[in-house]
Amino acid sequence: MTNKERFIEIYQTNIKRKGSEKLLDFLLSVHSDFFTAPASSRFHGNYDGGLVEHSLNVYDCLKSYLQRTQELYQISYSEESIAIVALLHDLCKINCYHKGTRNVKKDGQWIQVPTYEFDDQLPYGHGEKSVYMISGYMRLSREEAFAIRYHMGFSGNEDQRNVGKAFEMFPLAFALSVADMEATYFIEGKNHG
Q: What is the pLDDT of residue 71?
């Protein structure tokens, strides 16, 4: 099963909210490069299909994290909420990366290597842009919106007090941030995968 097929299967199995079909139609359309885009320009998932692979890794990490902590903290989330926040947290990266080249010196010679250039035509932030894009198709719960908004945790540009408060108020925000970092640094990092 390809990453695209797995994403669609998880999405259609778990996300039944009004408008979810139209959001999936957008992701599959020619107006979206979600299934072919990289997850970043130079770091984790910086290859074709990296974004969908990262989204699936975050889904797997979030499910695992929540299974380990559910009993300890007496919190649980629906399969729909888990799928929404994990699979859709980085929609803000759609149509932002364009193939290009850069010069690097190898063995004393300058050569051109492929790269991705970042060009965001809707510069609305990171997590907040994903929330904005999703909200155009379907309604998010407050906790889902905060989880996606603050999924970068303390590594983002947000006021640290706001991140901490969001994590206190909405445990799913903290869990998604942990899952995103686990996927980024342990599964997809330079020395892994």
A: 83
- Evaluate if residue 192 carries a pLDDT over 80: no
- Give the mean pLDDT of 133-147: 98
Q: Does residue 191 carry a pLDDT above 60?
A: no
Compute φ and ψ for 70, nearest 5 degrees.
Answer: -55, -50
- Surface-to-core class of residue 7, CB atoms within 10 Å of its CB (0-12 exposed, 13-18 middle, 19+ buried): buried
Q: What does the DSSP assignment read for the chain?
A: --HHHHHHHHHHHH--STTHHHHHHHHHSTT--TTT--S-SSSTT-STTHHHHHHHHHHHHHHHHHHHHHHHHT----HHHHHHHHHHTTGGGTT-EEEEEEEEEETTEEEEEEEEEE--SS---SHHHHHHHHHTTSPPPHHHHHHHHTTTGGGSSS-HHHHHHHHHH-HHHHHHHHHHHIIIIIISSTT--
Say if pTM beats, i.e. exceeds, 0.70.
yes
CA distance linking residue 2 with residue 130, whole number of Å: 24
pLDDT tens for each residue of 26-44: 999 999 999 999 998 877 8
